[in-house]
Amino acid sequence: MASSSDPRDLEHKLRILFFGTTRENSHGVPVVMNNLTDYLRSHGHDVGFVINLFDDHFVELHTDGSFRRYPNRSALLRAEQPVLSSYDIFHFHSWHFAPGFVPFHTEVQDTLSLDQFLGSFPETKVMFTDHSNPTEDADTILRVNGIDFLQLSSVEKRAFLDQTRLKDYDLRISNGTWKQGWTATAMLGREWMYRHADVVTHISAHQKGFNRDILELDFSDPSKHHIIYNAIDMIDLASAHLTPNIQRLGEQHSFSSVPRILYVGRAVEEKGFYDLLHAVDLFCSLNPDRPLDLLVAGDIPPHSSDLTRQYPNLGKQLKFLGRIKDREDLAALYQSSQVVVQPTHGECFNQVIGEALAMGTPVIATETSGPFEVYGSKGIVYNVPVRNPVKLAETLEDVLTHPAEALRLAQQGKAYVAATLSPRCIGGMYTDIYHGRASAPLSPPNSLTATPDYQTMLAAFRQGDLATAKRALQSLRSLARHADDVSRITFFTEW
User: Fold this and answer.
1) Which tens digit of pLDDT belongs to each residue from 192-201?
2) CB-based burial label for 485 (10 Å; 0-12, 13-18, 19+)
């Protein structure tokens, strides 16, 4: 164990079992989970993993550098109950362990429910870290059959979600509303985890406020509900020698010696991917003498070959790299790019922005939800409106024309990430919770719901009286003092 001056190292060493869907750094959630477990190991705590794959019911138990695979939870419990009982805390990083989840590609159901599984460990504390994007979920669920989900009562909401959720394997194949069914299943799964966990950590005030409002839940208990941002491990790679990594990637993907715009994430509408394509296409059409490359790191969309025809000014400048699972390779991409763009329509945190800033790379991000709360409101990124490719193109030109100013802003962002989002900082907050001595959440209790303007706005919103709702919102903005207040105002403003 590495030596440390952290006073937490002198305390009781914990045994924590993490529950997730993969240990590969293939997307944001396992990256966050691995950042935390690396910190805990470095401070002498014992860490294990239960990996329940999305694709089937196979369950893997990872302990002491090895793993054992079982066909389902029942088999895991029968074979490993003494080992599982030795852990102080079960820390869940995925809602899909909750009842009602239908795994991909299999009709096999696990007969052991999660509450039965947890009932075998009455002395073990259960934690749930919510990584959901409730903005995207709400947008999806509100489109179902023309029903306005927000107008339903609490009982009606739960009945609607139960009716809409995925109930069997065949529904996912034959029914065109699979995405709505998946979203309803996710919302019910999260709600189950909220109710059954001893401690819940939300990764932004926006996420906490949005889920509380959309599902009408009580998150007021400060001993149960906490807000902890995600750790950014890239800050530890900022001084690494990454030239060989970028040279290898450049040879593999035919990088040219022109400015690089980097996009990391899913190539989907809700992430603003097509807004970015439109913006870069516009930039290229207005600046034919300023060539650049648009690098896309993430799953390659099946229609990728059609995009150069839809956006003719991009041509061969659009390069799909696929998923970059190696952290040093991804750090090298950030470091060698002139700007990273995250034009999301809304999400709870955004790991990519923090990673880019940690590497000292300028970032353009949409002024929305979690990204604005965590980064945009700190003045360390270039803020642009949601769904505005023209403004995005103008900001791209500003960044590329004034690189010194862009780098100055990025360095401020790097300092912010190092001071507030480092694995040591975030890991310390989780350690406090594990030891049961955490203070109240970062955001004080929200006071807006008690105001007449809030009740007027809510009633007008549900009745479709947008003029009255907007007037009430204007008054509420002047009352917003805390992060939860801001997230609540942002929620209704967006809708």
Assistant:
1) 999 999 999 9
2) buried
- Rounded to an integer, what distance in angstroms lies between the CA atom of residue 240 and that of residue 10? 30
Instruction: Give the tokens for residue 441.
Output: 């959440």
Q: Could you tell me how far CA 303 lies from the centroid of its own chain?
A: 25
- Residue 324 corresponds to which tokens in the numbers above? 């970059």
Dihedral, 412, 417, 418, 424 alpha carbons, nearest 10: 170
CA distance 25 to 37: 13
Cβ neighbours for 220, distance < 8 A, ≥ 6 positions apart = 445
Q: Whole-angstrom Cα distance, residue 369 to residue 376?
A: 10
DSSP 86-101: T-SEEEE--GGGSTT-
Three-state SS at 271: helix
Residues pairing with 342 in the sheet: 365
Question: Is 479 in a helix, a strand, or coil?
Answer: coil
The helix/strand/coil state of 466 is: helix
Whether 363 and 392 have beta carbons less than 8 Å apart is answered as no
pLDDT at 65: 84
Helix residue ranges per DSSP H, 101-177: 114-119, 134-141, 154-164, 169-174
Spatial CB neighbours of 200, under 8 Å, sequence gap ≥ 6 = 127, 128, 129, 130, 193, 194, 219, 224, 225, 226
Amino acid 490: pLDDT: 55
Contact 231, 427 (CB under 8 A): yes
Tokens read off for 448: 């807006």
Q: State how far the Cα of 430 lies from the Cα of 410, in Å rounded to an integer.
A: 27
Q: Which two tokens stand for residue 340?
A: 């990273």
Position 64, amino acid = D
Contact 144, 180 (CB under 8 A): yes
Percent of the chain at pLDDT > 70 equals: 84
d(CA 323, CA 304): 14
Contacts with 184 (C-beta within 8 Å, 6 or more apart), sequence order: 141, 160, 161, 162, 164, 165, 166
- Quickly tell me which residue has 């750790």 as its tokens: 231
Domains and CATH numbers, the chain: 7-231 (3.40.50.2000), 235-421 (3.40.50.2000), 448-494 (no CATH)
DSSP string, 349-382: --HHHHHHHHTT--EEEES-HHHHHHTGGGT-SE
pLDDT under 70 in the chain at which residues? 1-11, 54-57, 102-110, 169-176, 437-455, 457-465, 476-495
Residue 489: what pLDDT? 56
Count of helix runs (H) and strand runs (E) in the chain: 20, 14
d(CA 341, CA 175): 35
For the chain, how big is the Rg over CA atoms in Å?
23
Q: Strand 382-384's sheet: what is its strand order?
A: 318-322, 293-297, 260-264, 339-342, 363-366, 382-384
Token match 């992430």: residue?
Answer: 271
